[in-house]
Amino acid sequence: MKRSKCILIAQEIRKTIERLHARMKDRFPESNLANICKELHEISKETDQTVQWIAKPNYLLRFGTYGLILIAALVLLEFLSQLDVRADGLNLAEFVQMVASALDTLVLLGAGIVFLVTLENRRKRNRVIHAVNRLRCIAHIVDMHQLTKDPDSIAEHTISTVHPPQRALSPYELARYLDYCTEMLSLVSKAAFLYVQDYHDSVAAEAVNDLEDLTNGLSSKMWQKIMILSATETGGPLMKPDVGGA
Q: d(Cα 43, Cα 14) in Å, to the nearest integer?
């Protein structure tokens, strides 16, 4: 039931991204922002496969770890048996050399055990961080698209420079554009959460939390622009819902 719920959440997020992409294409058919949303949709399609890979145990690594632990135990027993049999015939130098050799072997075996025990989790962690970094890239690209969407540009007293950015949006379109950006950033953080929903790793969770902080910060900046735009525009409401899905 828990696994089905996770799949259902992933499907709903994917459907929401797909609807947002369609709305962007309807409202801004020539904007590259819709292409970024399409890329986000493609990433969301890979979520189920990644989550399943993370949840699947790697039995080969686990058997290798158990085998190495068994070898380490046998080596330790062999050392103890030799120590019991030959202890009376050893001088101090031979005894120290024997102990040092045994300790070196145990250290190497212990390091190998630690490496194998953590290898599976490190591979899963790297997979999550790689996926989160792809989403982080989407968030930064969304932020780049809204940089020139300045609400002050629609004011009558605006003075153009020699190389002004292209601003062909009406106040309502500008508000919708910024709102689409905030929606996409929200979906970016929701998609990232799926990777750690059932995978409890502090490093992976921290990467997802950092991405959520990033998207929240960028969204706050865009909502400030929307509020400024709403305050300076004396016409109808700027944030009314899309009509006909656009």
A: 9
